[in-house]
Design brief:
Layout (H helix, E strand, L loop, with lengths): L2 E5 L2 E3 L5 E8 L8 E6 L5 E7 L5 E3 L7 E6 L4 E6 L8 E7 L10 E5 L2
Parallel strand pairs: 2-10
Antiparallel strand pairs: 1-3, 3-8, 4-5, 4-9, 5-6, 7-8, 9-10
């Protein structure tokens, strides 16, 4: 069955960096668009970034220029490099298969606070 396992979250100060990882299994990873989405406390799900089968990348305006999505098809892994973090980036981050509301993992908490 499809399994997505996120990791790499934590507590970081404003301006800091984190690298999130998502280990995927149970489906042909290289044939699916993959998404990073997040949910801040008390808010709905927000798409952050996605990467197409061909490796084209797209970002929400709120993270453009600060976050970088990438993938390693050989490892069935998805990544999100997050730089210049802000308090408003605080959220649970999920990787999702095929669409922003697709199957996702359990999430990893990112807290940006001084």
């Amino acid at each position: 069955q499809v399994q997505l396992v996120e990791s790499g979250g934590g507590l970081v100060k404003p301006g800091g960096s984190l690298r999130l990882s998502c280990a995927a299994s149970g489906f042909p990873f290289n044939r699916h668009w993959m998404y990073w989405v997040r949910q801040a406390p008390g808010k709905g799900l927000e798409w952050v970034s996605y990467i197409t089968v061909n490796g084209n990348t797209y970002y929400a305006d709120s993270v453009k220029g600060r976050f970088t999505i990438s993938k390693d098809n050989a490892k069935n892994a998805l990544y999100l490099e997050m730089n210049s973090l802000k308090s408003e980036d605080t959220a649970v981050y999920y990787c999702a298969k095929s669409s922003p509301t697709g199957i996702r993992g359990q999430g990893t908490q990112v807290t940006v606070s001084s």
